[in-house]
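Tutorial handout. Part one gives the primary structure; part two gives the three-dimensional structure as tokens.
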Amino acid sequence: MIITCIQCKRTFLFTEDQQREFKARGFSEPRRCRECSMINKKQRSNNTYSDSAGKAVSLSDRYLREGYFDTAGLMRREIFGSEARHVAEVLGAQGLTATRLRSFLNRLQAILYNLAQTNDFLQARVRLNAFQVAAEYARARNMVPPVFCEFIRRNLELAQKDEDSFNSFLEHYKSVVAYARNDKNFSAGYWLDGRGLPAGYLSGGYFTNTGHLRREVLIEWPKLLVETFAARNLTNTALRRFYNKLRALDGKLKGGAEFSRILPSLYAFERDAAYAAARETVPGEFIGFIARNVNLACQSKEAFQAFVEHFQCLIAFGKGRLSEGGQKK
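Part two.
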């Protein structure tokens, strides 16, 4: 029997001997491949925020200790990445899924819309207080775990300071939703290490010792990536959606913007890839592709330009190989 793993989406063989053994023990057929099952078991055993039952119960004391912004007043990368993944892991261990989180995200976005219409942040603060009340009400009805209210409380202490802080809370919340397990038990964090990408991909960075772009950045790796993504049914439309965002940032740089000012938008690329993968508009491997490039591209303006050229080559080699829209080639 061939089964598709609900986590990594790859197929694996469930042999007749295994079927007989599972039936004899009263087990249902496996939902995950052996690799994913072992990784999940290891993650549960290594969970540092756990009780005796092995379930995460609280947020780290380090969470949001440094606030939303760095010393330059820009959103920290952790707000989009590691701190958002920590919250998603803790909430997920308590049974809170991305679906429930999105219902509260919609309320936050409604507050933002009202703020844009009225330009009245005092009124937005009142609505944020009501948002916290709604979270407590949901907890009282056992719709969300207590740790969700703690998550909201810590963020509102920061978000109510000013409009920039509120926008940062919204971006952080979006990141938590992106990394939260969905109803199909998909976990974006599983793909961050670059599994499924070509061997050695970007291990030497973008540049040679003389500072020139490596040949493989422009030719070999884009070709291999196209083959990987084509096999996983990534469409040209979905690929171009991310490329267009990257080009927009490139346009800001060429228009005179400081490189540091585009970094928060660049950090968000990883989050957006995770969200797209959870919605099955891109494969899991695409998360690792974006993560590795963002890790390099945020180091300098030159590295960012290399990412743009690398992505442009991927688009070029994908023509005629990747399908358009939802139609397979």
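Part three, for discussion. Residues 43-56 have pLDDT under 50 and may be disordered. The two ends are 27 Å apart (CA to CA).
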